[in-house]
């Protein structure tokens, strides 16, 4: 299909051009992708370009992560995509598959210009990215690897290999970018070639609901659907305490399992709602709050990760402190119906947790 411009004299075909003729280089395509990755059809958090693979001396064009926790290797070519590109992308995916969390954090720190910032928290950046695009729960990182190859045309050989890889559960995506030129203006039209897009008519005839209830009316979802009357009252009281004592962005009700309170655009507290308990998950600087300290302060049990699931479920109100990364811990405070929210030590604990947040 061609690109047309509507004028007073009717539609006029915009001339299709080749990237070479338009004097576009692979670096131009890189610039477009890192500036707005959604031109590839979905949101990505870009953490590197021209990424040097240690010991191998290979460089991949763009490295990103997606909302499912996958590492995304993006290879870009100005001209037609030929068969060596798939092997190159597979090679890079095999390298990245060996990366650990600290490797991604180091790469993101360098790419985002935070090398000298001791307060930089990549996990918080990733959580913020997931939250902004509506992901309910932040996934583990590098669960799997994906490949996206981008060019102005797809050779039959590459298309065949890409389809075969997908049939064997290798996540590869091929995007054609058609370039048009009108005067000094460059227009681009990205199209996903592999996998073929699902027909937009596939849902024709289905009854369309209002959407996810936690997005439409999150407050009602948590208070009326996920909470019992008792935990509903507890959540309302906790919210009142937070609003009276702290400067917070929240509550944000639009996540399916929890309510979010943010500080400086990062999640500080997530309250996971349920009929029998509320679980308050705090992000704090590493080593600032211990389970022994919180348990003694609030007169709750310590949550032992070695206990069986049945034993855990039978515990009264309890606390667990678990390391997240080199900079932060997460404090999990699980409170049941008999927990005394009116006790001043609870407010004191909230102040300690707030002070311990890595602002």
What characteristics describe this protein?
359 residues, alpha+beta, Trna Endonuclease, Chain: A, domain 1, Aspartate Aminotransferase, domain 1, 2 domains, 7-stranded mixed sheet, 11 helices, 18 strands, 31% helix, elongated
CATH topology of the largest domain: Trna Endonuclease, Chain: A, domain 1
Identify low-pLDDT runs.
Answer: 306-311
- The tally of domains stands at 2
The CATH architecture term of the largest domain is 3-Layer(aba) Sandwich
Largest sheet: 7 strands, mixed
User: Radius of gyration over alpha carbons?
Assistant: 25 Å
Whole-number mean pLDDT: 84
Number of helices: 11
Question: Could you explain how this protein is built, in words?
Answer:
The protein has 359 residues and is of the alpha+beta class. The chain contains 11 helices and 18 strands. The chain has 2 domains: 191 residues, Trna Endonuclease, Chain: A, domain 1; 143 residues, Aspartate Aminotransferase, domain 1, CATH 3.90.1150. About 2% of the residues have low confidence. Strands 3, 4, 5, 6, 8, 10 and 11 form a 7-stranded mixed β-sheet that branches. The protein has a 7-stranded mixed β-sheet with strand order 12-13-14-15-18-17-16, sandwiched between helices. It has a two-stranded antiparallel sheet with strand order 1-2. The protein is elongated.
């Amino acid at each position: 299909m061609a690109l047309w411009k509507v004028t007073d004299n009717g539609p006029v075909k915009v001339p299709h051009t080749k990237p070479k003729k338009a004097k576009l280089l692979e670096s131009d395509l890189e610039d477009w992708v890192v500036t707005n990755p959604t031109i590839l059809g979905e949101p990505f958090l870009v953490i590197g370009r021209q990424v040097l693979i240690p010991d191998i001396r290979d460089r991949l064009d763009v490295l990103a992560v997606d909302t499912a926790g996958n590492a995304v290797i993006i290879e870009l070519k100005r001209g037609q995509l030929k068969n060596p590109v798939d092997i190159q992308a597979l090679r890079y995916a095999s390298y990245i598959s060996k990366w650990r969390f600290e490797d991604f954090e180091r790469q993101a720190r360098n790419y985002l210009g935070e090398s000298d910032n001791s307060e930089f928290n990549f996990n918080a950046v990733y959580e913020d990215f997931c939250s902004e695009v509506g992901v309910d729960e932040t996934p583990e990182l590098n669960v799997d690897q994906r490949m996206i190859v981008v060019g102005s045309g797809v050779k039959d050989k590459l298309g065949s290999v890409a389809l075969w890889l997908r049939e064997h559960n290798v996540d590869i995506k091929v995007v054609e970018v058609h370039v048009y030129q009108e005067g000094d203006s460059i227009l681009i039209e990205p199209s996903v070639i592999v996998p073929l897009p699902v027909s937009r008519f596939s849902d024709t005839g289905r009854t369309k609901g209002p959407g996810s209830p936690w997005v439409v009316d999150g407050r009602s979802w948590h208070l009326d659907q996920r909470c019992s009357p008792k935990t509903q009252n507890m959540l309302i009281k906790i919210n009142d305490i937070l609003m009276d004592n702290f400067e917070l962005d929240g509550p944000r009700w639009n996540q399916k399992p929890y309510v979010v309170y943010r500080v400086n655009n990062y999640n500080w507290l997530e309250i996971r709602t349920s009929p029998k308990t509320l679980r308050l998950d705090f992000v704090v600087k590493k080593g600032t709050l211990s389970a022994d300290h919180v348990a003694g302060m609030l007169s709750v049990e310590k949550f032992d990760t070695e206990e069986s699931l049945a034993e855990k479920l039978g515990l009264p109100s309890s606390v667990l402190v678990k390391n997240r990364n080199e900079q932060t811990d997460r404090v999990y405070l699980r409170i049941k119906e008999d927990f005394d929210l009116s006790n001043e030590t609870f407010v004191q604990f909230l102040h300690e947790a707030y002070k311990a947040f890595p602002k």
